[in-house]
């Protein structure tokens, strides 16, 4: 017999759905109930009373909050929005839930949820949460471009590959990782280059393209800007504009970019930077040994390391879409790009 959802607003009632029936002794049923879950009675499947997500096939040491955020990143309870939830202890729930994410379009770093529930296994650094985790997977970003203007030179595949999803307004796109947005695209604008030029601090960008690439793009833009001042007929331009929930004036953005360009120029000792934008799809065209293939997508070669566990098992794109190491299942504090000789 089904239980009314209004009754399941009470944590005490959600706990009762587990009692005497929950099959996993190592998974804390009280923690599941605290975070909005109740037992469906089927295998090890639980369901959130406030967002409706169902989660099953649990593995040690899966954490209820991390899995909840992974599969339902916009759950109102996880996002600390208003719900009808009636907890047993509000103070305990407050310590378990992730802090409210920022609204300024930037990345948000939050205290380690794992360490709150398991202090004996705590880590020293915070876990990084994405600005738009629902678009962490590239296919999800691609789906957002269903209404993308067909006249645009930038194609959905290019934009999604560079971490962007479509906002549904004009030609505005946003990065799922840093939350920064770009608009007013020129025909010659390259998504990766514009990402590097305007959103150079993005973690996803640095993981995929490295700081050297970002510096070279900025240097290239500075050189083209100087050339354009000497020759107004120059075809080289870059007019993508950064936007966020808090709009800045174009003058402020231009001044900020000039400061960044001057900083890069001052660090150069001579010569010119070379853009080395290697094709990210090249790995798919060659045979990758089984012992080096990404253990998430099984398509690309693994090239990232999770910290602090140190496991190297995922490619850059897959590493950006998970919340814990695929090997040891532990939450991580950082992801680093690795290179093999």
TrEMBL record:
Q: Which GO terms describe its biological process?
A: apoptotic process; negative regulation of apoptotic process; positive regulation of canonical Wnt signaling pathway; positive regulation of protein ubiquitination; regulation of cell cycle
Transmembrane ranges? Answer: none
Entry keywords, A to Z: Apoptosis, Metal-binding, Zinc, Zinc-finger
Q: Which Pfam families match?
A: BIR (PF00653), zf-C3HC4_3 (PF13920)
Q: List cellular component terms (GO).
A: cytoplasm; nucleus
Nucleotide-binding listed as a keyword: no
Q: Which GO terms describe its molecular function?
A: cysteine-type endopeptidase inhibitor activity involved in apoptotic process; ubiquitin protein ligase activity; zinc ion binding
PROSITE patterns xrefs: BIR_REPEAT_2, ZF_RING_2
Q: Specify the signal sequence span.
A: none
The record's annotation in InterPro entries points to: BIR_rpt (IPR001370), IAP (IPR050784), Znf_RING (IPR001841), Znf_RING/FYVE/PHD (IPR013083)
Source organism, top-level taxon: Eukaryota
Family stated for the protein in its record: Belongs to the IAP family.
PANTHER family this protein is in?
DEATH-ASSOCIATED INHIBITOR OF APOPTOSIS 1, INHIBITOR OF APOPTOSIS
Please report the name of this protein according to its UniProt entry: RING-type domain-containing protein
